[in-house]
Amino acid sequence: MLRWTIIFFVIAIIAAIFGFGGIAAGAASIAKILFYIFLILFILSLVSGIFRKTE
Asked: Which residues, 6+ apart, have CB-to-CB distance to 48 below 8 Å?
């Protein structure tokens, strides 16, 4: 999922360089949403891994 976030981020940067404001904003918002989903899943897996090791 982090790979998709990076892909959409790069698309947003390229679109912003060429002046496509709507496309850049759309790709940036998708990248932001995917990044937050990735961050939540990472934290959940980190916490569950800690609890599994303590038991």
From this structure: none
Q: What is the mean pLDDT of the chain?
A: 82
Tally of structural domains, the chain: 1
24: tokens are: 């850049």
Helix, coil or strand: residue 25: helix
pLDDT at 12 over 80: yes
Give the dihedral of Cα atoms 15, 20, 23, 29; nearest 10 deg.
70
Question: How far apart are the C-alpha atoms of 29 and 51, rounded to whole Å?
Answer: 33
Give the structural domain span for 36. Answer: 2-54
Residues 6+ apart with CB under 8 A from 46: none
Residue type, 33: I
